[in-house]
Amino acid sequence: MVEFNKKEKLFNLKGIALGNPVLEFSTDFNSRAEFFWSHGLISDSTYNIFTTVCNYSRYVSEYYRGSLSTACDRVMSQVARETSRFVDKYDVTLDVCISSVLMQSQQGSRELDVCVEDETMRYLNRKDVQQAMHARLDGVQRWTVCSSVLEYKQLDLQIPTVNTVGALVKAGIPALVYSGDQDSVIPLTGSRTLVGRLAARLRLNATAPYRAWFQGKQVGGWTQVFGGGALSFATVRGASHEAPFSQPERSLGLFRAFLAGQQLPESFQ
After folding, report:
1. In terms of domain of life, where is this protein from (predicted)?
2. Which of 9, 41, 97, 265 could form a disulfide with 115 if both were Cys (CB 3.0 to 4.6 A apart)?
3. Can you say whether the dihedral through the CA atoms of 260, 262, 188, 118 is positive or negative?
C-alpha cells in the first residue's frame, strides 16, 4: 500500500497495529522458555535444557524440515509433559473447556464461557445458519477452528517481518505492537525486546516512560512509546493471544487511543 501510494495516492493508511505478532523467528519463539519458567509451567532443569540443549526455534525448524533430532524430541516431550495439555498455551491462566482439550482444539475466554469455541463450531455448522450467512461450502465439509483449508508454509516463519514494520515507520506510518500478557505462544517478552531493538535501529528515543495504562478503574496493561508515537509497544493485562477475544473492553480502549492518535490513559477514567 505504501509503495503503491508513491505512484498513485489511493490508500489512506493511517497506522498499523499488530497483536502478538511473529516479528523475528528466533527471538519470538525462544522467549517461550522464559515465559513458561516465569509462570511456573516448567521446572528449573527443564528450563535449562530448553535454553541449552534444544530451544524452540531449533525444534520448529527441524520439525518442519522433517529432520527432528533425538535431542529436540526429548526436550519437547519433557516440556509438553510439564506444561500439560490441560493448560491453554494461548492463555496460560485460563481454565480450559475439557471437551475441547480432549478433541485437541482450543477454547474460549475468561469473559465468556470457556467452551465458546465448541459452541461456535456447533452454531456455524447448523444448516440454517449457513444458509442465512450465504456460506459456500465448496470442497469444505465442516467449519472448524484453525482448519487446514488454508495452509501456511511453516518455514516462512523464519522470514523476519520486523524489517517491514521498520520500513512502515520510516514511511511515516505509526506502528503499534501489542501483546496479550498471558500468551505463551508469542510471548510479550520477545515482542518487547524486538520493538526496543527496532526503535534503537531507527534512532527513535523513548518519548514516554514505561508505565501502566488504565481502562476504567483498572490497569489495562503497560506501554512504552518511541519517537512521539511513531512506534509503540503495549501489553493488554489478562489477555490471551487473541487479546480482543479475551479482554474486549481493554482492547477496545487500546484501539480507540491508537486510532485517535492519543496516549493511553495514565489514570482512572
Report:
1. Eukaryota
2. 97
3. negative
For residue 122, tell me if it sits in a domain. no
Residue 84 falls within a domain, yes or no? Answer: no
pTM (2 decimals)? 0.86
Q: Of the ranges 115-124, 125-134, 233-242, which one carries the lowest mean pLDDT score?
A: 115-124
For residue 244, what is the domain's CATH number? 3.40.50.11320
Domain range holding 172? 160-260
Q: Is residue 91 part of a domain?
A: no
CA pair distance 135, 129, nearest whole angstrom: 9
- pLDDT tens digit sequence for 25-81: 999 999 999 999 999 999 999 999 999 999 999 999 999 999 999 999 999 999 999
**Considering the chain, what is the average pLDDT of its residues?**
91
φ, ψ dihedrals at 21, nearest 5° = -90, 155
**Residue 113, in any domain of the structure:** no
pLDDT at 207: 94
Instruction: Decide: 247 and 111 in contact? Cβ < 8 Å.
Output: yes
- Tally the domains of the chain: 1
CA nearest to 215, candidates 229, 236, 233: 236
